[in-house]
Amino acid sequence: MTDAVAGHPEEQELLRAAFRSFDEAAQTLQQSYSALTARVEQMDLELAQSNDALRRQLGDNEAMRAHLDEVLESLSTGVLVVDDCQTISRSNRAAELLLGATDVELRNRRATDVLAGAGLGLCDRPQRIGQTVVSINRVPLRNDYGERSGHLILFQDITRIFQLEEQLQRKERLAAMGELIGRIAHEIRNPLGSVELFASMLQRDLAEHSSAKRYAQQISEAVQSMDRLLANLLLYTRPVRMVRDWHLAEPLIGESIKLAAHALTRVPVDIRVEISSKIRSIWCHDGQLKQVLVNLIVNAVQAMPKGGILAISLSQEPRQGLDMPAVRLTVQDSGMGIDPAHRSRIFDPFFTTKEEGTGLGLAIVYSIVEAHQGRIDVESTVGQGTACSIILPHPSMRGNPTEAQARAGSEPESSDAYPVEHEAA
Question: What is the pLDDT of residues 261-304, one digit of tens each?
Fold first, then answer.
């Protein structure tokens, strides 16, 4: 066959050309394979880099999500995330505490049903959830393209702001009423003195057992009662002057309970006193703080006509209460509670819901607490009871506290205390 091929040069040339083509194709295939291998290696490297970048991005996103969750859970503002169908998809801890439900219980429920169940609505006016006052707002929620994707319902706790506004309104109202009361009291007191004088003269001149003498005596007693009322009014409108000192807490509270015995013996009352071991003394005017406690105790007993629990407690107050060290003295009853419609007026003079009340008891309490640079908070639920808390400054005691307390207990109390007003509001 070699000879045959050798005898045909054309065939030899074709065979050589075929081998050259095969070599070139093999070389091209080898180059393509090498290039493909390099490309695969490059793609593997790029894929590995992309995976690393994706993992880093996922890690950053997860860290950002966890951070946003922490921020959301740390907000004092309650947040409900609601979709376009008014269905709750997320809530934070503040909202759960306000609504009394967990995130699991709130999810997939209609926001309007949840709000209605708590007695709330989407409006600008302040609303109450238990003892907390909140404002509720709705804010549109938008995605990266600016399109609406539901909304947020925000619960802002405005209890302290609401209390400050109430106090400001009360001060303005009481200032105007105090000026009017002072003028009227002075105008009435002058002729009243004349009536008392003439009634005393009649009693002296009339026969001992005559009916006229008894009438004159009744006139004199009525005038004296009116004079005591006017004295309370004038004391209420007059700036309070007092000297404060350290007074032992336990004897002060105990003596106040004894002074209110006339009310405590009328109905079965379970008295519970709890004094923090960290508080041995109170910085106050002894007589005036007793007046406050007596009026609050009498009010508490009157709110429990069938008896109940009277709890008196003394504890430390967080610094934000008065922006200074303070104590909280609370008188709590298990009585009828205060009608929400009356809450803003309970410290107004002459406002009372009792047939025989004068409406001066709590007004005087408010004035005394104000004179102590303190604050009075009232929490009440109809049918469950009322807690009146007196927050008083508690400055650091200089020197030996025990000596200061002993000295406070031995000093005579000042004479400028209010007279006891038993017909509290």
Answer: 888 888 999 999 999 998 999 999 988 899 899 999 999 999 99
Beta bridge partners of 148: 142
Q: Is the pLDDT of residue 326 over 60?
A: yes
Q: 169 and 200: one domain?
A: yes
- Residues 158-190 as b or e (16 or more Cβ within 10 Å = b): beeebeeeeeeebeeebeebbeebeeebeeeee
The structure tokens listed for 360 are: 């001066």
CB burial readout 343-359, b (16+ within 10 A) else e: eebbbbbebbeeeebbb
Question: 127 and 134 in contact (C-beta within 8 Å)?
Answer: yes
Question: What is the 8-class DSSP label of residue 319?
Answer: G
Q: Which of 126, 157, 188 finishes a domain?
A: 157
CATH number at 223 reads 1.10.287.130
Tell me, what DSSP letter sits at residue 125? S
Helix (H, G, I), strand (E, B) or coil at 132: strand
**Which of 58-67, 347-356, 358-367, 371-380 has the weakest average pLDDT?**
347-356
* 52 lies in the same domain as 131: no
Average pLDDT, the chain: 79
Does residue 420 carry a pLDDT above 60?
no
CB 291 within 8 A of CB 330: no
Instruction: Report the pLDDT averaged over residues 155-181.
Output: 76
pTM, rounded to two decimals = 0.53
Q: Specify if 208 maps to a domain.
A: yes
Angle between helices 211-237 and 159-205 (to 10 degrees): 150
Q: 308-317 and 269-275 as β-strands: parallel, antiparallel, unpaired?
A: parallel
CA distance linking residue 330 with residue 390, whole number of Å: 6
